[in-house]
Write a structure and sequence with these properties.
The chain has about 140 residues and is of the alpha+beta class. Strands 1-2 form a two-stranded antiparallel sheet. α1 runs antiparallel to α2. The mean pLDDT is about 85.
Length: about 140
């Protein structure tokens, strides 16, 4: 009978641990996506003038040219923000489930521990009675 109570206690603890593991997994995934919301990258190009020297009929001539150069900056990734928010909500939900499971489990463990103590006391009493009957 005490093994049944201990098995219930183990089940309650394993359920709480399972919810905590799920919370951690979802929180880690949310943390990853948090870092992907803004990233440094190529945002476009701009035209830039430059000077160069060329030879024309045995003399050096300065000329102006135009070229495109890349422009870098912070880029916003809205899908990463959506992913982060969804995973954070899931992590918060699993945290609530973990807390509820823990509270229910603590009250059940206390009740089971009281039952185990009573049963162990009863076993000791019965063993003493058995010894006195044999004696």
């Amino acid at each position: 009978m005490t093994q049944s109570y201990q098995a219930q206690n183990y089940h309650v603890n394993s359920q709480t641990n399972h919810f905590e593991q799920l919370r951690q997994e979802h929180q880690n995934a949310a943390n990853y996506w948090q870092g992907q919301i803004h990233y440094w990258g190529l945002t476009g190009y701009r035209w830039e003038s430059y000077w160069y020297t060329t030879r024309s009929w045995f003399r050096r001539v300065q000329r102006q040219g135009w070229r495109q150069v890349p422009v870098y900056g912070w880029i916003h990734n809205p899908q990463a923000e959506i992913n982060r928010n969804q995973l954070q909500e899931a992590a918060n939900l699993f945290a609530q489930m973990r807390d509820n499971s823990s509270q229910q489990g603590q009250s059940q463990v206390i009740t089971n521990q009281e039952q185990i103590t009573l049963l162990q006391g009863r076993i000791v009493t019965l063993q003493q009675e058995l010894v006195s009957l044999r004696g």
